[in-house]
Inverse folding.
């Protein structure tokens, strides 16, 4: 418990205890927990440098902090994310009665373009080249990259998989995992991913799905390094800026371009808000997908156009 006074956060140990209690109260991945710990620690260090008691901070203090870290080179999205975590921390303290109100709630957060993601995406041809490089690299690389490309998983979901998470369900080969927010999820395992996994596992029936040579679970940093190394070997120009998330974006873009309904892509990716899924669709502004072509094709059919003769989009594909 946090007493109803300013004292407890004056000591670092007490602040750490409050932060751990806050994190324990939420369903978060370990990666997100680590990021939130850093965000709170950064704020507390800033307050300490100004002899400011965090429990007495106002929205003006939060504004000053935000402008300072923004001037250090952080993007608006990164600053907004840090303030979001800090706001959750203060909301927790307010519920405990340690602060009268959340000072971040009234702060001036930087504007963020919610319709754009800074993650570098990949074209279908670049995904193919990356998979070919993974195939040359070895069975584990091929299996790992195929699962990422075919299912569009988050890297935290991928590295959290165990061998016994892979099974069969209602005629489908499937994989079960814990998604964002601690939600239990399941996805179909494609035949290509299944074949690649079988080749990699070689009959192994337990333990982490993806392991290091020493038998430990593969971590997110190793996956990041693998994606960039293979992208460089594949001759992808943007290899230095790629991440496992690039394959997640490529999955969403490809699914939508092949006509998969937005709600199905949203469910597959585990997004609570369809607007998030739309941000992942890098091809959503492609004029080939303008619904005007579909409307025109339907009118042409009503007006007695030749059966099967539909207008073509500028890209050459038939509509209808």
């Amino acid at each position: 418990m946090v007493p109803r006074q300013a004292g407890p956060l004056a000591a670092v140990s007490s602040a750490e205890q409050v932060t751990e209690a806050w994190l324990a109260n939420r369903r978060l991945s370990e990666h997100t927990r680590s990021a939130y710990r850093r965000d709170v620690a950064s704020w507390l260090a800033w307050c300490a440098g100004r002899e400011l008691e965090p429990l007495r901070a106002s929205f003006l203090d939060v504004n000053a902090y935000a402008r300072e870290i923004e001037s250090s080179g952080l993007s608006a999205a990164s600053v907004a994310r840090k303030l979001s975590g800090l706001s959750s921390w203060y909301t927790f303290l307010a519920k405990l009665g340690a602060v009268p109100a959340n000072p971040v709630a009234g702060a001036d957060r930087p504007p963020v373009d919610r319709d754009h993601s800074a993650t570098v995406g990949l074209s279908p041809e670049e995904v193919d080249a990356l998979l070919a490089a993974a195939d040359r690299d070895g069975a584990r690389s091929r299996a790992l990259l195929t699962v990422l490309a075919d299912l569009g998983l988050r890297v935290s979901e991928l590295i959290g998989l165990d061998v016994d998470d892979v099974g069969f369900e209602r005629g489908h080969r499937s994989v079960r995992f814990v998604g964002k927010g601690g939600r239990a999820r399941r996805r179909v395992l494609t035949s290509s991913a299944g074949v690649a996994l079988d080749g990699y596992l070689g009959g192994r029936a337990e333990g982490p799905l993806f392991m290091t040579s020493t038998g430990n679970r593969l971590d997110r940093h190793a996956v990041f390094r693998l994606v960039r190394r293979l992208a460089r070997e594949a001759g992808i120009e943007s290899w230095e800026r790629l991440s496992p998330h690039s394959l997640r974006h490529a999955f969403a873009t490809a699914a939508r371009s092949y006509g998969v309904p937005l709600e199905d892509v949203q469910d597959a990716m585990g997004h609570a808000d369809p607007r998030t899924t739309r941000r992942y669709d890098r091809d959503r502004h492609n004029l080939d997908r303008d619904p005007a072509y579909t409307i025109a094709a339907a009118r042409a059919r009503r007006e007695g156009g030749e059966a099967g003769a539909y207008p073509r989009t500028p890209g050459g594909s038939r509509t209808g």
Remarks:
- The longest helix spans residues 76-96.
- The chain has three domains: 7-106, 124-280, 286-320.
